[in-house]
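Sample 3 of the quickstart, ligand zinc ion:
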Amino acid sequence: MTLTKQPSCRFCGTKLEHTFVDLGMSPLCESYLPFEQLNQMEPFYPLHVQVCANCFLVQLEAYVTPEHIFSDYAYFSSYSDSWLAHAKRYTALMVERFGIGANSFVVELASNDGYLLQYFVEKKVPVLGIEPAANIAEVAIKKGVPTLVKFFGRESARELVASGRKADLLLGNNVLAQVPDVNDFVAGMKILLAPSGVITMEFPHLQRLMEENQFDTIYHEHFSYFSFVTAEKIFAAHGLTLFDVEELPTHGGSLRIYGRHAEDASKPVTARVTEMRHREVSAGYLQLETYSRFAEQVKETKRKLLEFLIKAKRSGKQIAGYGAPGKGNTLLNYCGIRTDFLDYTVDRNPYKHGRFLPGTHVPIFPPERIRETKPDFLLILPWNLKNEIIQQNAFIREWGGKFVVPIPEVQVHE
Ligand SMILES: [Zn+2]
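Result:
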């Protein structure tokens, strides 16, 4: 593993001197441990997020290389029903709005297990996935989604263009945050995009992260956290104009930005862009003070969650976790929640069964474990999917079980 030192802003190069939030030391959130590794040393890295005083990009130093992160990446998008439904709706929307069809070429960056492109394949649209994790790309290929195992940037964009292909629709969901060299990535999109092509990118919205205390979405694999105004600046620097923006409920509140070549006048900039820009500027997203207030909010969220857990344990309650997402690992490590509070957690992804959460070593079981042990409280770690999870596990009410959602602050659902 290599340490890549980055004391300056990954977009504009300004020296980074202002703390956004410091979550202490944490292991890599996707390093689920097998039993044999429990007694070995475990690397912890700082989760110290900074904000650039010039462009206001909120960012984490890249302590680990993407090669390391993606070598055996455990995240399979297809394990979430609501995420699949989201992908299906997106496909219908693109077909309708931009006339994407059999003569188009759709490219997805970080296409994961083909969870989204499969819906374009169903509609006979030529697609290509670009996915750095080989084990996940393999699943996509088996599903009939052509996928290249590659990191995306200027170089891979030029290779694709040289083979005679430019993208009419170029999309990436939850990848922009995971790119260590954001300039190389966005420059690559400029190269690969057809003259009248459309880019769509979805990423968690910084405003929602800050307003709703979603500090657990901060982890080593997420290098950058974007406001709309900062994203707009980055795309503009590479000759791309954001012509539309939508707010989505996914991942606790995301933005879907629509980009095009600055030269392409066929798609006018919508009022939604002006409104979003105005909203962020009035909320202070171009002022350093706004960012420096976040850290205290996070500490208070931790105190409230621990207060609840201590009280529950003192009155003899049994608490289990639901889910083993990356965000859960940030939360549990930052708050110091181990098997002293959580007996175990469950996950639908069989890859994680029999393994242990990084840092906290909470064991991960299949969901059936809940019926066997009948916990009093189920702490929902992927709170962005709480409605889906509460619905799927409504049976815990048979024995008086209750759901606990930790973010934006601890809340019990009967
Ligand atoms: Zn900057």
